[in-house]
Each structure stands twice: as C-alpha cells, then as structure tokens.
Amino acid sequence: MTIENALARAVKKLHAKKMLSPDLDAEVILAHVLKKDRAFLFSHLEQSVSQQKYAKFKKMIQRRIKHEPVAHITGHKYFYKLLIAISRKVLIPRPESELLVDLGLNYLKNDKRKKITVIDVGTGSGAIIIALAKNYKKAKYIGTDKYTSVLSTARKNARANKTKIEFIKSDLLNKFNASFWRRNPDILLVANLPYLPTRVWKNSMTEVRKFEPREALDGGPDGLRYYRDLVNDLAGIIKKLKSFQTYWEIHPGQEKELKKILKQIGAKKIKTHKDLCGRNRVIGWQK
C-alpha cells in the first residue's frame, strides 16, 4: 500500500459520508500516523505504508467518519504555528481566535509600560496565552480556568512550548484579591469565554455538539451569560488600575448588546474587530 493509494481510499470513504474536508482530513491523519508533515506525503507518494501503520490509519479514518474531530484523533491542533495538545475536556482552538493573539501582541509591543500583566480568563488548552507568551517575553502571564483537568492540559502545553505562565484555578476572576490588583496595576485581559447562544449550540455540527465540551461553548440564551459575569467581576476592579485593555472573542451580532453592558461600568474606546470572513469577532475596550 503506497501513500498515494492510502490517501485515495480514505478520501473516497470520507467523501461518501459527505465530510466537509475529506482530502485535508485524510492528509492530516496519515501524516500523524507516519510522524511526518503533509509536505512529506506529496513528495513521497510512491513510498510504502506498513501494514501496521495502514491498519492504524484505517481505524482513525473510521473515527473521523463518525464525526470525531481530527484534533481529537491526532491529539493535537496547530494554533499560531504552535502545537497544542487537545483533550475531550477543552475546546479545540479555532483559527478565528488567532485574532485575539494578533490584537494582544500589537498592544503589548506598542505600549510603553514595562510591567504589564496579561490574564487569559477561561484559558482552556492555554493556546491563546501560550501564543502571547511565546511571541512577547517582557510581560507577566496568567491563565485561569475553573476546571482542574483543563488546567492540567494548559500546563502541559505551556511546558511543551517552553513558556512561563502561571495557571490559577478560578471561576473568572473570583480568586484575585485587592492585593493582587495593587501589585499588578497594568492589565491586558483576553478572554474567549463560551459565547454561543444555546439555540446556536443545539444546531451546531455533530463534531461540535457531540465531541466538544458544552461548558466551553454554550453561553446561555443570548450567549452573553459569562461575559455579563465577567463584567460584574471587573466593575469593582478597573477603577483601581493604572491601565486596562481587554479583548474578548464574541459571536457575530452580540456587539450591540455587549456595548450596552460595558458602558454601564465606564468602558471607553469600545471597538469591534473583524475576522478574516469580515464578521465582528472580537470586542476590545479600555478602562
């Protein structure tokens, strides 16, 4: 069995089940089995695949046919050119979330303060805070999550990507006391909290609804449940800070309601940022 034949058979099976990206899925999975990159496949199409590895590949393709995400099958996902380990307990990093990293890095690199503390609320796999820490080393980095198992994955990813990040078990910001804010008066806060309205989550693809944790996706009736809670946490904090900038990933269409909520706590310079598809994907604001 050659690489070319193995791919052709897998693509045919995936296509028959009307998978959205049969070619890409087959390539990523076979590259994972062979411990090579996808470029290797195309330059070695005539190379033989051992029976053992082909059997493993077939089993993984069967898992994909049942709509299991490729990232769960391979155990990892690339995000901002970094390899991020994935478990069933964390949300698979999405390409649109790289906008949070772009905005955060732009702020850090253009700000004159030298002791900025970056907090990633609801860090999940740690992908966002790790990407920030990997690309800007002068800040202090903290990731929070309320689930111990999730923080375990985040710590594993931080070590694997050689970044220095403190991870704290906290429901949003409830573990941060007044002393912390006095010691860390310049804050950049990023968040990708669950923001899908419940009706949207219920109608999402099988890959999302069946295999990814609902608690990382479902944000309540209008999708803003957790951002409202975060705003409440911030209400008594931001006045004490010297500087405060935040970027939050949102569901397109939520920006109008969220702006109303933010103005109630004195948020200024509220701005939305579009993703590569032209949809409002991130809302940023200052103290």
Describe the 3D structure:
- The protein has about 290 residues and is an alpha/beta fold.
- The protein folds into 2 domains: about 60 residues; about 210 residues, Rossmann fold.
- Helices cover about 45% and strands about 15% of the residues.
- It is built from 13 helices and 9 strands.
- The protein has a 7-stranded mixed sheet, with helices on both faces. Strands 1-2 form a two-stranded antiparallel sheet.
- A hairpin with a 2-residue loop joins strand 1 and strand 2.
- Helix 2 packs antiparallel against helix 4 and helix 6 runs parallel beside helix 7.
- The longest helix has 15 residues.
- The model has no long low-confidence stretch (mean pLDDT about 95).
- Report the CATH topology name of the largest domain: Rossmann fold
Radius of gyration: 21 Å
Instruction: Give the class from helix and strand content and strand pairing.
Output: alpha/beta
Estimated helix fraction: 40-55%
Strand order of the largest sheet: 5-4-3-6-7-9-8
- CATH class group of the largest domain: Alpha Beta
Average of the residue pLDDT scores: 95
Whole-number count of domains: 2
CATH superfamily of the largest domain: Vaccinia Virus protein VP39
